[in-house]
Design brief:
Helix content: over 70%
Organism: Catenisphaera adipataccumulans
Shape: elongated
Distance between the termini: 7 Å
Keywords: Membrane, Transmembrane, Transmembrane helix
Transmembrane segments: 66-86, 134-153
Structural class: mainly alpha
Radius of gyration: 20 Å
Number of domains: 1
Protein name: Divergent PAP2 family protein
Strand content: under 5%
Largest sheet: none
InterPro entries: DUF212 (IPR003832)
């Protein structure tokens, strides 16, 4: 048995690690190719942001009670993070895609080359998640704390 005080921390970290590793497996399943960059990448299925904050909230709920103030705080925190991952960060990535396409189109139509370093910057377009990716992280964040409960709270 492990220290009960570490249960929420270990749960959140393990949720993050499992989600990041699962992204690599999911990518392989979809493409047939192994790409270990997914272990550290943002975006993709399942959302490690969602799994981490859901796992933290679940562990706090299990340990402190689902009617505690601390659970309420972590649950609200989890919903904000998941909303941000699914909406704000996702659409930020879409705006980057659109901006890159507009610059490319402007260069092609006008023949003007933009030489400033900002136009040569490689911006990452996958910043956030689709709803299904967030939902996958949420489910993972519900399951892992239940598996770890007997090890920490016996």
């Amino acid at each position: 048995m492990f220290s009960a005080s570490l249960y929420p921390l270990v749960t959140a970290l393990l949720c993050n690690i499992v989600a990041q590793c699962a992204k690599t497996i999911h990518y392989y399943y979809k493409s047939g190719h192994w790409d270990l960059h997914w272990v550290i990448a943002s975006g993709g299925f399942p959302s490690s942001h969602s799994s981490t904050v859901t796992g933290l909230a679940m562990a706090i709920g299990i340990q402190e009670g689902f009617n505690s103030a601390l659970f309420a705080v972590t649950a609200v925190f989890a919903f904000i993070v998941m909303y941000d991952a699914c909406h704000v960060r996702y659409y930020s990535g879409k705006n980057i895609e659109l901006t890159k396409q507009l610059v490319k189109g402007l260069q092609e139509v006008s023949g003007i080359q933009f030489d400033q370093p900002i136009y040569k910057e490689q911006l990452k377009t996958i910043l956030g998640h689709k709803f299904g990716e967030v939902a996958g992280g949420f489910v993972l964040g519900l399951i892992i704390p239940l598996i770890l409960t007997p090890l920490f709270l016996g």
